[in-house]
Design brief:
Largest sheet of chain A: 9 strands, mixed
Helix content of chain B: 25-40%
Shape of chain B: globular
Number of strands of chain B: 22
Largest sheet of chain B: 7 strands, parallel
Bound molecules: flavin-adenine dinucleotide, adenosine monophosphate
Shape of chain A: globular
Largest interface: A-B, 90 and 108 residues
Number of helices of chain A: 6
Distance between the termini of chain A: 59 Å
Oligomer: heterodimer
Strand content of chain A: 25-35%
């Protein structure tokens, strides 16, 4: 089975913040990491490979330094790595991203199964998986929490819903996005690290993709960021002062009004 | 691309300071952009010298024919025989947008059995309800639901489509947007109409809630957004409201799905009805252990409320995940939210700040939770909560 895992390099969300007073971004120690959900997608791909055989290719669209997360993925069990990188891709929203990724996947010969994370933590959009499946004209299942049955023709998986989960059946080729509870990702192995060091990463530029340039990057992106700002807080609070007992009495009085 | 006018650039470094992506740096007194640039345009707004410009944006998409798209649509989420509450919230928000633009508000209902639901949608503010009623829609599948909404949109050309940012909405709405080759903004918390051109401004949290971004979709239609549940307010239903119900038939091949739903398993065990509780007592790392949660559970019980938690408390294993409130947990909007030993990180705040009244108990007077609190109490939860429980019992028994 040929499996492609889409991985994205993201800034570690907990480090990025806008100082509400100066409205400036604090970048202190912002690290680039592999999108946490994508680790789980990769782990699931490697487990499938171990079970039913096949290859795992990691694919990312991003700046040249995104090669770091490809090597990291290889050290965790991926076989091949493809970096899709070009200035022409800059400013891509999810629509342009899915176009570019689908062209790249076609270029490298397609896949039986494509795995994505549920969402990328920089944007939390959760749109690239479904959009990519539409571009490839293959069925997809979002928020997969367990693979129940797998063979080279069809899968049975559980998809997480708001009120429980659905067990669904799907024929290959297909795309899944995965949630974190699907597995516990392994750490890089020493052998994997060695392989990652030596591996030649396939690099594809816009010219390699037979792409319609009007659908790439900023030009191919219908959405447009109008502004970026720090979250506003309402803050017209009343502090309840006094001794502990006085505070408690006032609080209880208020609570009794409402309850 | 990002154009830098080197004559205008004064090398002040404001762009560098404000870039979320570490993509622009002042080198030898002049700004220089690197490949991290996502063309978000953040720096352009900050540049006081007017030296930065994003080029190429005007060329994207087709501006022609935008005027043919009109009206606001709300996808009425249907599952297992009932309409998801977020639908009514969207009808409330959609009503405002439609009135502002003086266009009709329509609901789209995809179901196997419409029954009284169209009338219900009209009572909550819809002028029209498009109904597709078909056996193939008994179970949610991305393909059948997506194709049905896509076909309807191509036929009737709405300018805006809103859906709940629920498991269903976030799964099939991207399919519709991709098929229609238009923009989609996920998980919005605010919607506005731009004065000048009537465009929909879609505001959403990004970077785990640390930053807010306002997004527009200037050159393609429809403008599509999924909206977080419990952020918008529903209008009170008016059974006397009149509206039209339009039945639409989708061809069977468009309702076929390559994914088949075999079985549904309802959320097991731990049924946490946080969303429905009027009072929510929530605990954070300040509660120190499971014991702390037993304490606030007693308070919640006394007030007929539910227990919630911050992620720090959930991660510590003091209370299971279904209780988590925030960016990666639930959004709640109770009458009263009592935060005990919670610092008020933005990721927590996004899940509870639309509560009517927020009471914060924290021993650190500078804790950010006090910025959103209606009432703040600086003190030790282990002193205050037990006394509060006693006091309420005492008042109740007298
Ligand atoms: C991508 C991302 C998503 C996230 N999603 C969520 C989410 O969904 N929900 C969420 O909650 N968090 C989320 N977080 C985590 C969030 O950033 C905070 O780390 C978390 O909310 C902190 O929890 P806390 O307030 O309980 O703990 P802390 O920040 O440690 O605060 C504990 C507070 O308790 C007070 N305290 C301690 N002892 C006492 C006492 N005896 N009496 C009174 N006060 C006391 C302290 O003064 C302090 O203010 C997310 C983070 C990221 C990066
Ligand atoms: N630039 C990218 N390159 C490769 N995969 C991506 C990229 N962007 C998003 N993805 C995949 O799509 C998933 C959802 O991303 P998003 O729609 O941005 O939230 C991620 O978890 C990745 O698996």
């Amino acid at each position: 089975m040929k499996i492609i895992v889409c991985v994205k390099q993201v800034p570690d969300a907990k480090d990025v913040r806008l100082d509400p007073k100066t409205n400036t971004l604090s970048r202190e120690g912002v690290q680039s990491i592999i999108n946490p959900y994508d680790r789980h997608a990769l782990e699931e791909a490697v487990r499938l490979k171990e079970k039913v055989g096949g290859t795992v290719t990691v694919l990312t669209m991003g700046p040249p330094q995104a090669a770091e997360i490809l090597r990291e993925s290889v050290s965790c069990g991926a076989d091949e790595a493809v970096l899709v990188s070009d200035r022409a891709f800059a400013g891509a929203d999810t629509l342009a991203t899915t176009y570019t990724l689908s062209q790249a996947i076609k270029k490298i010969g397609g896949a039986d199964l494509i795995l994505c994370g549920k969402q990328a933590i920089d944007g939390d959009t959760a749109q690239v998986g479904p959009g990519l499946a539409v571009r490839m004209d293959i069925p997809y299942v979002t928020c997969v929490r367990r693979i129940v049955e797998a063979n080279d023709k069809a899968f049975v998986v559980e998809r997480l819903m708001d009120d429980g989960y659905d067990e669904v059946e799907v024929t290959l080729p297909a795309l899944f996005t995965v949630v974190k509870e699907i597995n516990e990702p392994r750490l890089p192995s020493l052998k994997g690290k060695m392989r990652a060091k030596k591996l030649a990463i396939t690099t594809l530029s816009a010219g390699d993709l037979d792409a319609d340039t009007a659908q790439l990057g900023l030009k191919g992106s219908p959405t447009w960021v109008v502004k970026v700002f720090a979250p506003q807080l309402k803050g017209e609070r009343t502090m309840i002062e006094g001794t502990v007992q006085e505070q408690v009495d006032q609080l209880a009085e208020k609570l009794m009004e409402w309850c | 691309m990002l154009l830098i006018d080197i004559d205008a650039c004064i090398g002040c470094g404001l762009c560098e300071e404000n870039c979320a992506f570490d993509a622009i740096h002042v080198v030898n007194g002049i700004a220089e952009v690197n490949e991290n640039c996502t063309l978000c345009g953040g720096c352009v707004d900050y540049c006081e010298a007017g030296a930065l410009k994003i080029e190429g944006k005007e060329e994207c998409g087709e501006k022609d024919g935008l005027a043919a798209w009109s009206g606001i649509w709300v996808y009425a989420e249907y599952r297992h025989g009932r309409i998801a509450p977020v639908t009514y919230e969207l009808l409330g928000a959609g009503r405002k947008l439609a009135d502002q633009k003086k266009v009709p508000l329509s609901a789209v209902l995809l179901t196997d059995k419409a029954g009284g639901m169209p009338a219900q949608l009209i009572s909550y503010g819809a002028d029209q309800v498009y109904v597709v009623e078909d056996h193939a829609l008994a179970q949610f599948t991305d393909e059948a639901y997506g194709n049905a909404l896509e076909d309807l949109a191509r036929q009737y050309k709405p300018e805006v489509i809103l859906a709940g940012a629920t498991a269903i909405g976030r799964s099939f709405i991207p399919r519709v947007a991709t098929s229609l080759k238009t923009g989609l903004t996920a998980d919005c918390t605010q919607l506005d109409i731009q004065q000048e051109d009537g465009a929909l401004l879609q505001t959403r949290p990004a970077f785990g809630g640390n930053i807010m971004a306002t997004i527009a979709c200037p050159n393609t239609r429809p403008q599509m957004a999924t909206v977080r549940p419990l952020v918008m307010k529903a209008n009170a239903p008016d059974p006397a409201r009149k509206g039209d119900v339009i039945h639409y038939t989708i061809s069977p091949d468009r309702l076929a799905s390559r994914v088949k739903v075999r079985n549904f398993v309802a959320l097991e065990g731990d049924q946490v009805n946080l969303n429905e509780a009027d009072i929510v007592v929530s605990g954070g790392r300040g509660l120190e252990s499971e014991k702390g949660f037993q304490m606030i559970a007693e308070l919640a019980h006394l007030l007929d409320g539910a227990v919630a938690a911050s992620r720090a408390a959930v991660d510590s294993g003091w209370i299971p995940y279904p209780h988590q409130v925030g960016q990666t947990g639930k959004t709640v909007s109770p009458k009263v939210y009592i935060a005990c030993g919670i610092s008020g990180a933005i990721q927590h705040l996004v899940g509870m700040q639309s509560s009517d009244t927020i009471i914060a108990i924290n021993r650190d007077p500078h804790a950010p939770i006090f910025n959103v609190a209606t009432y703040g109490v600086v003190g030790d939860v282990f002193e205050i909560v037990p006394k509060l429980i006693d006091k309420i019992k005492q008042v109740r028994s007298s």
